[in-house]
Amino acid sequence: MIKDDQSKKMILIIDDTAVMRSMMSEALQQAGYDVAVAENGKSALALFEKVRPDAVMLDVMMPDMDGFDTCRALRKLPGGKQTPILMVTGLEDVESIHNAFEAGATDFISKPINWVMFGYRVRYTLRSNQAFLDLHLSQARLDEAQQLAKLGNWELNPETQIFTGSPEFYRISGLHESASEISLSQLMAGVHPDDHEPFNRALAQITNNDCSYSLDYRALPKNSQERLIHLRCEAFFDSSGNKKRLRGIIQDVTELRKAEEKIRFLAYYDGLTGLANRTLFRDRLQKALAYGYRQESKIALLFLDLDRFKRINDTLGHQAGDLLLKTIANRIDYCVRETDSVSRLDSDDTNTCVSRQGGDEFVVLLTGLTHPMDAGVVAQRIIDAITKPVDLQEQELYVTASIGISLFPSDGANADTLLKNADTAMYEAKKMGGTIFNSTRRR
Fold first, then answer.
1. Secondary structure letter of residue 214 according to DSSP
2. Confidence category of residue 239, pLDDT binned at 50, 70, 90
3. What is the dihedral of CA 73, 74, 75, 76, to 10 degrees?
4. For residues 111-148, b (16+ Cβ closer than 10 Å) or e, as one string?
5. For residue 37, how far is the Cα from the chain centroid?
6. Which site from 199, 354, 361, 431 is most exposed, i.e. has the minimal number of CB atoms within 10 Å?
7. What is the pLDDT of residue 347?
């Protein structure tokens, strides 16, 4: 029998005495409850599964199957763990009361029963049990939410160095989820050795100062890959202002950081070649120009375009064209790295940068040149590398390219002018059959 929240509560009475069953039934019905009765433990188990009561009144002394055995059996039935069971026993029977709780009873009612208070006792038992069920449900939902978010909460006793936390805290830490507490040394066993110092420094900082602290560290759970964990902690104080506990959260941010890196890559790098895209190249060029103005240093732009690339694409297909572009990009990148390291977002502003602008167009930023002729040396090195044969789809291809060069400050004082002049010089090179052309030659 399934009841909604608006229906009466069902109470199951289990007692081998007919008079006691009758008196309990009348008292509970007058209090507004539905009642089901059983005269022994065996029949009570079958009736329990049928009516699914909201509470059970269980006599201790019954033949064949006493109240203790009945209580234990009820707890094993579906729904039995959550149902409050009130055992009825003698007023001075302390041993029975102890055994009742050991058997799983929720509470007990002493004989002789105060019938005036009987209904209220049942009502408050049901109310407290509902509060317990609501708390249990809320905790279960919190645990599920933490598991979905890969986030756990924890508390540290600074004096004992003992951690307690949620199941997700232990799982993230690489420990058994059913653990009740762990020591600092147990937690540190799952921290990457190179991150022990910053981890300990974070705890020392929050222990010795009245502030919050956060850090990312690498964890090494047993039989699992290295994970990136975000930890945040804060101190809490008692009413006297004494530091009592450190509390915080840890979150497995491995996938989040990977997603952030992927977004970052897509925002600043070409998806096919891995070179800088237009956005990143423009940023590096602007910073290089600012540095060039301050240091009065020379900068060069090399604008490169493959010759007759469309014919290769049309003949062999776009997949072959993409493989060719990746090969050419690697060769350009290698040539420039021989001159200087290719710039990244967190690199020094004066480093070089190789960018794919789109299609078969590439741009190279060269900084810190001692002489304008240095740009021509690099350009020739790139041409020599590109013209080496390329093995593609069991064919040996020979590719040529045209490069235009513009120099700062002689060929332009800003990014747009330098790019335009390098592009124009590249087309001049194409007219000459595919070679290197310096925009300075036009003056």
1. E
2. low
3. 60
4. eebeeeebbeebeebbeebeeeeeeeeeeeeeeeebbe
5. 53
6. 431
7. 42
Residue pair 335/381 in contact (Cβ under 8 Å)? The answer is yes
Q: What is the pLDDT of residues 179-232, one digit of tens each?
A: 678 888 888 888 888 989 888 887 777 777 666 778 888 888 666 678 898 888
Quick one: how far is CA 73 from the chain centroid? 43
Would you state the structure tokens that stand for residue 296, as one six-digit string? 């009065």
What would the two tokens of residue 264 be? 């970052």
pLDDT in the model for residue 288: 92
**H-run or E-run covering 44:** helix 41-51
Report how far residue 105's alpha carbon sits from residue 88's, in angstroms, rounded to the nearest whole number: 10
**pLDDT tens sequence across 44-103:** 998 998 999 999 999 988 888 998 999 999 999 998 888 999 888 875 667 777 888 888
- Enumerate domains of the chain plus CATH numbers: 10-142 (3.40.50.2300), 150-255 (3.30.450.20), 269-442 (3.30.70.270)
Query: How far, in Å, CA of 100 to CA of 67, rounded?
Result: 8
Q: How many CB atoms lie within 10 A of CB 296?
A: 7
User: Which pairing describes strands 151-157 and 162-165: parallel, antiparallel, or unpaired?
Assistant: antiparallel
